[in-house]
């Protein structure tokens, strides 16, 4: 991409945070799925032999939760609901058909991405709390068996919902051309910024646009 034509979308630290989360998330999710669906037992080998996977899964889960808290701090201010999110909802079908005729007044993240953000926050938090309750080595001993059973059920349900949500997130990342490049290199084209996040471009990118490549959080 021509450097005059690109704008910084995601800083290095935030990209590192995102991709570290992706790596840890996949390790935890794959080992968890291997215990839930017997036909997927081979997925568990991502964390080594079964005994080791059982030990590592909860510790990595704690790492995922800590990364989530960092993500919360770094991304929450872009994910607060605003009035103009309603415009995106009204035109969601046009968005899905990739028709960008009208201005949708989309800030740094659109309403769908905000739902993803809060969904991820809620589901990983639920996984963390229920995970502590069912963590045999340390905490399960403090809870009665019916509570452990309920927590196990809630843990599995939250995990499946989260995996579906993340699959949707990956699909949208692939669907909107240029966004994965943005999360890898940090940069997107001006056209991309104007087309997909018009209010972000107008309010935060264009006003400071005095040199070729600008830096934005
Ligand atoms: C292979 C897996 C993944 C891919 C390809 C991917 C891709 C992306 C891309 C391209 C963006 C930038 C969107 C934009 O600039 O508008 C993004 C943002 C984001 N991703 Fe991912 N992602 C993946 C997995 C995950 C996982 C596992 C999580 C958390 C559990 C996650 C959480 C986020 C968050 C919080 C944002 C910022 C959006 C917001 O705050 O609303 N991603 N991702």
From TrEMBL:
It is found in: Cell membrane. GO terms for molecular function: electron transfer activity; formate dehydrogenase (NAD+) activity; formate dehydrogenase (quinone) activity; metal ion binding. Signal peptide: none annotated. The keyword Zinc does not apply. One of its GO terms (cellular component) is plasma membrane. One of its GO terms (biological process) is respiratory electron transport chain. InterPro entries: Cyt_b561_bac/Ni-Hgenase, Di-haem_cyt_TM, FDH_cytochrome_b556_subunit, Formate_DH_gsu. This is Formate dehydrogenase cytochrome b556 subunit.
């Amino acid at each position: 991409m021509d450097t005059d034509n690109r704008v910084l979308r995601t800083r290095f630290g935030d990209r590192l945070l995102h991709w570290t989360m992706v790596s840890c998330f996949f390790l935890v999710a794959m080992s968890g799925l291997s215990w839930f669906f017997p036909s997927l037992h081979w997925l568990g080998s991502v964390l080594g032999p079964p005994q080791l996977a059982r030990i590592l899964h909860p510790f990595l889960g704690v790492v995922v939760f800590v990364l989530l808290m960092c993500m919360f701090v770094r991304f929450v201010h872009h994910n607060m609901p605003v009035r103009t999110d309603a415009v995106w909802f009204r035109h969601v079908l046009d968005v899905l058909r990739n028709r960008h005729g009208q201005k949708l007044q989309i800030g740094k993240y659109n309403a769908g991405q905000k739902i993803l953000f809060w969904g991820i926050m809620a589901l990983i938090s639920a996984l963390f709390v229920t995970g502590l309750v069912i963590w045999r080595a340390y905490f399960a001993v403090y809870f009665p068996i019916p509570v452990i059973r309920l927590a196990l059920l809630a843990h599995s349900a939250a995990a499946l919902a989260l995996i579906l949500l993340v699959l949707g997130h990956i699909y949208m990342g692939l669907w909107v051309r240029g966004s994965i490049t943005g999360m890898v290199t940090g940069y997107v084209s001006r056209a991309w910024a104007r087309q997909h996040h018009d209010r972000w471009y107008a309010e935060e990118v264009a006003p400071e646009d005095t040199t070729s490549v600008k830096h934005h959080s």
